[in-house]
Amino acid sequence: MRTEATWIARFAGIRVLVIGDAMLDEFIWGKVSRISPEAPVPVVNVTGASYYPGGAANVARNLREFGAKTSLLGIVGNDPHGERLCALLVDGGIDISGVQRGATHQTTVKTRIIARNQQVVRVDRERLAPLDAAQRKRALAFVDAAMRRVDGIVVADYGKGLLDQAMADHICQLARNRRKVLAVDPHPHTSLVWRGATVIKPNRTEAFHAASMQQTPPVDPPTADQPLLQAAGELLRSWEPECLLVTLGEQGMLLFTGRTAPYHIPTRAKEVFDVSGAGDTAIAALTLGLLAGANARVAAELANRASGIAVGKLGTATVTPAELAASYS
Q: Using CA atoms, how far apart are residues 318 and 39, in angstroms rounded to an integer?
């Protein structure tokens, strides 16, 4: 039997295309020593700033950190934030030949102000805009060409306008025709159908929304959460994925294959400092596990452990293969 370390070692060199909404994550670091006399809010004295790829770009960054050969399809604005994001990706060894610079687009920036290792506030700067006809044509042509040279595809939908149902259908059809692993991290407000994907990874809220069901309070253990089981069953019927992995925060994850009973994976997080980007880490490890040849349970366990490590770090963090392997010791 292969050990987990063997699966992780096989991540290196796997070729993955990431499709989704690329963003820039900005972290403003500071100290708080007093409350503002103008309002009951802390005054943050800024000590520094850090920038990381965010959204789908962070999925690409996580895949690359695990050793995969990674390319990204997305769109950013023709602005300084877009330039910074592209530079970060290139420096990280990620192929950005599929990233378009849109004159009518604004690069999405999420700014988090951190003091005393806690997030004080998040400020989002974005202007949602769908692809125009020329941008869509270039994006689809890139997908068609890339599908022939990659081992798998990850779709990271953040609802910023890149993806619509027609593009989702195109990606799913191509992946099926070429027998590629297709992993999807859906967004609760786009309501896109990803029929026939290899694996879809919604969180609990997204699962209920996609199933058009009213969300109910969590039940412990999750395998006894009948409304959740019903929502997952509806998604298995309507989306027809090979497996569905529902992330449950502190309750861990619940894996559905449609063939066996739901499989609960308790959380492995020891300390939670920052959940920023933990889902991106999870979908990266999940996809690479499947591409390395692991079964769905092993791949889901890899994803669970990887995200548990990521939330123990401040900022939009990644996890190394060594850290993931060490979590099994």
A: 36
In a domain, 49, yes or no: no
For 251-273, give one letter per residue: b (16+ CB within 10 A) or e. Answer: bbbbbbbeeeebbbbebbbeeeb
- Cα 155 to chain centroid, rounded: 8
Domain at 197, CATH number: 3.40.1190.20
Two tokens, residue 217: 């309070």
Over the stretch 33-89, which tens digit does the pLDDT of each residue have? 899 999 999 999 999 999 999 999 999 999 999 999 999 999 999 999 999 999 999
Cis status, amide bond into 186, omega within 30 of 0: no
Tell me the pLDDT of the chain averaged across its residues: 93
CA distance 52 to 267: 26
Cα(71)–Cα(197) distance, integer angstroms:
20
What is the rounded radius of gyration, in angstroms, for the C-alpha atoms of the chain?
Answer: 19
* Domain carrying residue 283: 4-22+54-107+127-326
Please give the model's pTM, rounded to 2 decimal places: 0.94
Task: Let me know if residue 30 belongs to a domain.
Answer: no
Q: Is the dihedral of CA 288, 136, 237, 176 positive or negative?
A: negative
Within-domain flag for 194: yes
Tokens of 39: 């309002």
Catalytic amino acids?
280
Q: How far is the CA of 142 from the CAs of 74, 127, 147, 156, in angstroms?
A: 10, 24, 8, 17
In a domain, 122, yes or no: no
What is the side-by-side order of every strand in the sheet holding 106-115? 42-55, 22-35, 106-115, 118-127
- Give the whole-angstrom CA distance, residue 291 versus residue 293: 5
Q: Which residue has the tokens 């366990």?
A: 301
Please state the domain count of the chain: 1
Q: Does the structure show a pLDDT above 90 at 129?
A: no
